[in-house]
Design goal:
By secondary structure, the chain is of the alpha/beta class. It is built from 16 helices and six strands. The radius of gyration is 25 Å and the shape is globular.
């Protein structure tokens, strides 16, 4: 799908080279080879770069592609995205200098387009993801771009200037978010990014919760790795303090889950302490001001839906759901933070996608390849969810309504993630059982058939 979309991009053929960066270890290699050969037979300049040594994973593949790329600009698409035909004609002019000539004197390192959704309405999980991603691209990325703050290339649906990649030190696999790492190194070298919210590239959202959890784990770990590596350089950089502050908030954004985990663990202790010191539960009034920040996620998602042109009023139930569900990922993020120190060289675990599209209502992820089994972390999420219910009950008993409300929200989030994970696993188990039964029946039929003649 992505190869065919890339071959259909409207751009002068003598200025366009297509690389298919392939680290596959299964029959995908042959599928790609046939597709590339068919495209080459039509006169398209396309090459298939297959690696048997997956050193560096995605960053390594990008680095090897960069080494042999002939162009000055590099558009990058993950396999689950479908670029529109006019993608290059709308992005390449953004690299032009102020004099309107396409000059390398421009300081634009990369141009980032907005993610769309091929399967937004496939399930409740894809709807919640779409809502969160809309907020990221239509509020966070748009706000940073408009105000001149540093923002990141999102790993796909963007174009890089080759000179900027080289100047920033190239693609490296030191973190699990090679896109965020390179973006900030480019900013530190004096380059900047351009964001195009009106250019939408649709992509496929994870349909399976374990796959979504794996994606969030990778993003959380990579962001915190970049924060550890880059924040000292950010604060030494010769730039505005407002940019440094905003960059710090950006790189540390997944830290909110660590704070939620800390709050969840200490709530019973706070309730007990407040019995002797009534003002302790709100830090003697300061907690009421801090509690106002709980409205931020709702405002964030509402703003995203308004910017997208959707009816945000109708989205309020989902906005509430994604806010609660997001809090249930706190242990997943905490594990990512711990593994930075306990698992130094992690394998890049890709997010399984199944070729699902919005109009493909008959498709089910349970019938597809690359399924993920249940993540054992779900047991800890269940236990913490029950612990939060205990915190809520304790707060209710002592009339501490602030902690009661938050403990209920956290418990709902943790238990919702638990139930959804187990539910997806059971559905997958039943699907596998049906497939195995069908295979067994087919084998039995063939076993009872008379032997075929040589002819």
């Amino acid at each position: 799908r992505v190869i065919e979309a890339a071959c259909a991009i409207d751009y002068p053929s003598h200025l366009l080279e297509i690389q298919v960066l392939d680290d596959s270890t299964d029959e995908t290699v042959n599928v790609i080879a046939r597709t590339v050969e068919a495209a080459r037979d039509t006169g398209i300049n396309i090459v298939h770069l297959h690696r048997t040594d997956r050193t560096g994973y995605k960053a390594g593949a990008l680095a090897e592609g960069l080494a042999v790329a002939s162009g000055e600009f590099l558009a990058i698409f993950d396999a689950d995205f479908v670029p529109p035909e006019d993608f290059l004609r709308r992005t390449i002019p953004r690299f032009a200098a102020a004099d309107s000539s396409l000059s390398l004197t421009s300081d634009v390192a990369f141009v980032q387009a907005r993610w769309g959704h091929l399967n937004r309405d496939f399930s409740w999980l894809t709807r919640l993801q779409a809502l969160a991603i809309d907020g990221h691209f239509l509020v966070e990325q748009a706000g940073r771009g408009l105000r001149g703050y540093w923002f990141n290339f999102n790993g796909t649906c963007g174009v890089w200037r080759k000179e900027a990649i080289v100047d920033a030190g190239g693609w490296t696999a030191d973190t699990l978010t090679e896109d965020l790492d390179l973006s900030y190194r480019a900013h530190l070298q004096g380059w900047r990014g351009e964001y195009l919210p009106d250019l939408v590239v649709p992509g496929e959202l994870p349909a399976q919760l374990p796959g979504f959890r794996r994606q969030q784990h990778r993003w959380a770990r990579g962001s915190m790795e970049c924060a550890i590596r880059l924040l000292p350089q950010v604060w030494r950089a010769d730039t505005r303090r407002s940019i440094k502050f905003q960059a710090s908030v950006h790189l540390l954004s997944y830290g909110i889950h660590l704070l939620l985990l800390l709050l969840t663990l200490i709530y019973p202790l706070v309730v007990l302490a407040s019995m002797d010191l009534p003002g302790f539960s709100t830090l003697f009034g300061f907690g009421y001001l801090f509690a106002l920040t709980s409205f931020a996620p709702g405002v964030f998602f509402i703003a995203g839906q308004r910017q997208s042109g959707r009816n945000w009023v109708r989205e309020i139930p989902r906005i509430m759901a994604v806010t609660v569900f997001g809090s249930g990922l706190m242990i997943n993020t905490a594990r990512a933070a711990i593994q930075i120190f306990t698992k130094k060289n992690p394998e890049f675990e890709r997010t399984a996608k199944f070729g699902i599209e919005a109009d493909d209502q008959q498709s089910s992820w349970t019938e597809k390849r690359y399924q993920l089994d249940i993540d054992r972390i779900v047991f800890f999420e269940f236990m913490l969810g029950m612990y939060s219910l205990f915190s809520a009950w304790t707060a209710f008993q002592h009339g501490n309504w602030g902690i009661f409300i938050y403990a209920v929200i956290f418990s709902l989030g943790l238990l919702a993630v638990t139930v959804a994970t187990v539910s997806h696993t059971l559905v997958l188990f039943r699907s596998r059982k049906r497939r195995n039964a069908a295979v067994a029946t087919e084998r039995a039929i063939w076993k009872n058939q008379p032997a075929l003649s040589a002819k």
